[in-house]
């Protein structure tokens, strides 16, 4: 990544946490091109998109957007929405699980209260034979997120897992422990702004780390989700899977809603398990800005869509 792109990315990621920009954006509804990456503002719209994906052989993971909450009443409201979502998935019969953000459940405000909310969700999902993924946020929450999943599993709630980010220097160590515990993991490159002391600043190092994580995990045979749109990483995953004789049922690819859709459909046609991450809700702004930061060309797309109106 060149210096200008890095600066641009860093500026956008700083904007993802800007409250004023967020409140202006959320008043615009899903305009500004965010509709390309967000399925809608309501659960019904998200379930509808999940159904359409299922028709193409693509599973879904649904995420009710929201992060950086300010009090536990908000966390309570988000928890209720996810419980409603689990019922919605069950009632509609779509092939989907859910992804949640630990801080959205209050983990950053009060660890015990956050844990209780997450536990209630995972517990309900268990009775519905569903699965809950704890997304990985920025580095202050890495250990707490992994520990939360560990604690849930120790309580018999094994229908949960988390995410390991290749850009973090600690990830290989984390993955070794998590794999020994047979915890379900999603591997990603990493989407937040992190200091060089703890994260690789160079994309080449991130890619190398991602490849090491993928091969270590596939070799272990523990169920893994490889979440990327990078065809080199997808080819690497296929290469490792065939080299280690891994059954296609013990891993899945994951991609984000609205990104590289033809590639998602192609993997489904090739017989791979593929799941699309479908975000919905009114608090779409930080998620949207992180997607812009990942690819500067997206800004051009957004600018064009605004002027087309
Ligand atoms: P890379 O960024 O190199 O992209 C490869 C190619 O994909 C690009 O050249 C472009 O063609 C396309 N592409 C990628 N991003 C695009 C975009 N925004 N718009 C348009 N095209 C794009 N991160 C995290 O920190 N915690 C988490 O919990 C998760 N969860 C998660 C779930 C799922 C299902 C996915 C796919 C990703 C995440 N991520 C995440 C985000 C992840 O860390 C990473 O930022 C993005 O996936 C982009 O990295 P790629 O591996 O796609 O490669």
From TrEMBL:
Pathway where it operates: Amino-acid degradation; L-proline degradation into L-glutamate; L-glutamate from L-proline: step 1/2
Keyword Nucleotide-binding applies: yes
Cofactor info, note text: Binds 1 FAD per subunit.
Signal peptide positions (record): none
EC number(s) from the headed UniProt entry: 1.5.5.2
Keywords (A to Z) from UniProt: FAD, Flavoprotein, Nucleotide-binding, Oxidoreductase, Proline metabolism
GO molecular function, one term: proline dehydrogenase activity
Alphabetized SUPFAM superfamilies for the sequence: FAD-linked oxidoreductase
Protein name as annotated: proline dehydrogenase
Organism: Cohnella faecalis
